[in-house]
Design brief:
With 477 residues, this protein is an alpha/beta fold.
Length: 477
Amino acid sequence: MLSALRKIVTPFPIAGVRRQAGIVIISYSPPIFAVVAIGSRAWPYFLAKLVPTASSAEKRNSLHRGEHRVKPVFALLPKKTATPSDRWFNGAIYAPISAMSTGEANAMDRAAFLANVSGLVVKIGTNALTGSDGRLDHDVIVALAADLAGLWRREQIRITLVSSGAIGAGMTELGIKTRPRDLPMLQSAAAVGQGLLMNYFAAAFKPYGLHVGQILVTRYDFEDRPRYLNLRNCIHALHRCAALPIINENDAVAVEEIRFGDNDLIAAHVTNLLQADLLILLSVVDGLLDAAGGVRPLVEDVDESVTQLVRDRKSSRGSGGMGGKLLAAGTVRTAGEPVIIANGKVPGIVRRLLAGEPLGTLVLPGKRRLSARSRWIGLTARVRGTMVVDAGAAAALRNNKSLLAGGIVGSDGDFTPGDPVAILDASGQLLARGLSNYSRADVEKIKGHRSREFARLLQCDTWYDEVVHRDDLVLEP
């Protein structure tokens, strides 16, 4: 979107801004070009009269608006200037926010940056939902419902809510003072509290004509590809039915092996699942605090300089903390979407954040935007094993090549064909994640060999030339 860009030079004044169905079109005067923004990407376009006999190729590369067709400027420019990081038109240069200095990004217009959010995931924590007595705070839930319903109805934003609070609500109802350490007691508190939580939400959204739909998940629902896609389909269907999806971990049945243990990370995976434009993490803190105790308004990368600012103090009812929020933010940022960490007790917080008020901490998206499938391979699926490669194979991977058996020097784990694996260099550094075409037993047979030897080594008539195809690979950033 244009809001995600810094305009360095512009020869013409803006004539108007138009938003429709997640697309923002900024027109200029004279009306000879425009900037079109879709999701978190923006491009300058030439405007030309619609040509009825346009070829199918032109139609695929054009966006039709009224009697105009807008054609990508960079398609008409020398190839060296037609890059995703630099957009040119008559001396105008547009650079992504990721290319800005910290000072420039801090001074950016947040309202413009968030102007065309059409898919939103909001996560609210236990402490934000409960009062000082530990009980669910009816006023907070009613206020949150009014906030989200207004954005749903007025702005046509597709919202998915990830809500903690079931265990905390169950603890209060059962008279449990501190969070249980044993799994059966946690499960019983969740079983009691989940119904209370959903009843509150259903009553709060009903005045706005919105239903609520409960989805309880475990890690397995994200790691198993068919279940992962079914989860996405269910959420989309709820949106079409004017029902707000409310997602929580299925604590009543989850065991350690399939638990996330933190709804912040679930919210991150839901954001990547839906390719939502923004994730908002709501707690009872105003954002990430800097060394002086003030809120840090902007984070460009979740690196060591940021994680060392964490001062985690988990409550007696919640399971998360700032460390978990930064882990979730890093997951979403790597996929190419922004995240905001803010205080859920602030009235109208979600509406105010989308309006551009400088509240909370904004974590900027990375420089690449992963496809839905790449997000599952690289950020969601749990690897079943590892492959170690030599320097030549590592260089080939970095150049977007497939992994061949000749470059593999070792493997570990218990993976089968189609399983996710981690690919390491000789020093143990993670290079990529991908889907293996072979089991570990077969990888051990063919490692270091060329594909023409596979028939003899595997005693088979058909085989894959690639151990991991480049289409099934996601490189580390």
